[in-house]
Design brief:
Distance between the termini: 18 Å
Number of helices: 0
Oligomer: single chain
Shape: elongated
Low-confidence stretches: none
Largest sheet: 4 strands, antiparallel
Strand content: over 45%
Strand order of the largest sheet: 1-7-3-4
């Protein structure tokens, strides 16, 4: 899921097959102008990952930058 954000933010990722009993994992990276992952100057982190019964993953993330950056949240679950 690609989003534009900075600071601490929450996002709900639609995830077919997810329920409260699965173990989801999420990573974050910055995107360049061609939508390719790269390591920019901003620190980024994932704070919370919560599977929901509604086939969704609730995520709290942080992009430590003063303006919005285009980032990608990659996710998978087991």
């Amino acid at each position: 899921m690609d989003v534009s954000a900075h600071g601490i933010f929450d996002v709900v990722i639609p995830a077919t097959g997810v329920n409260k009993d699965v173990r989801p994992f999420v990573s974050i990276c910055e995107l360049d102008s061609n939508n390719r992952s790269f390591r920019g100057a901003a620190n980024m982190s994932i704070a919370n990952v919560i599977p929901l019964d509604e086939q969704q993953i609730y995520v709290t993330a942080n992009v430590a930058w003063g303006a919005n950056l285009k980032v990608r949240l990659n996710w998978w679950w087991i």
